[in-house]
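hi support,

uploading two proteins for the ticket. first:
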Amino acid sequence: MPTPPPADPVDADAQPVVRPYALTSGRTRPVGDVFDLMALIQAAGPPAALGPAHSPERVEIVRLSQRPLSVAELAARLDLPLSVVRVVLSDLRQLDLISVRLPQPADAPLSDETLEALLEGLRAL
């Protein structure tokens, strides 16, 4: 009996592929206002409150946003395109499962010293 070929280590960690349009029911734009990248998302309750009717992505967003997270950070942690995350967030907002807090502008402009320190820090990266 021939032995099967060794498993490909890349495929061993592969997860089911779900197309982005399946996560958003074919929608490409969120309902209502577009979510700013820096908008802070906070869950209105625990992920266990969602129940089985919600997709794993919705549950994961609620789980991650038990403490405020930016839209950009959620997209990065979920490894999903930003446009998909924005559509799913709009669904969660319509269901009152999340709250959205927009970033507030700074009261005072940054000093030249602060900007120079920021620039030096970026150059060090």
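and the second one:
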Amino acid sequence: MSTYQVRVEDKTYIINTSLREGNPITILEGMSFGLKPIIADWVGAEEIYGKYVYRNLDDFRRLLDDYKPEEYKKFAEQYDIKKTFNEIKQIIEE
């Protein structure tokens, strides 16, 4: 068991401010607990997370509204990491 644990019961958002990312699994983990993702616009973020991506402070403020935990849980449940790995494998093999 890890000595590092984060309680999410009293949290509402998971914020990713990185300008360069792969696909951080921590975002999906947070979403699986019902946390609303607020994600910086790194290359590929919009293709993965769509409406949860911000480009400027106005976008960031907009994302603070309309909290829907069941929507975020459903998004995380439907995300298919195996599909992503298979697509990466196919690109490498080409």
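thanks. also noticed: The mean pLDDT is 87.
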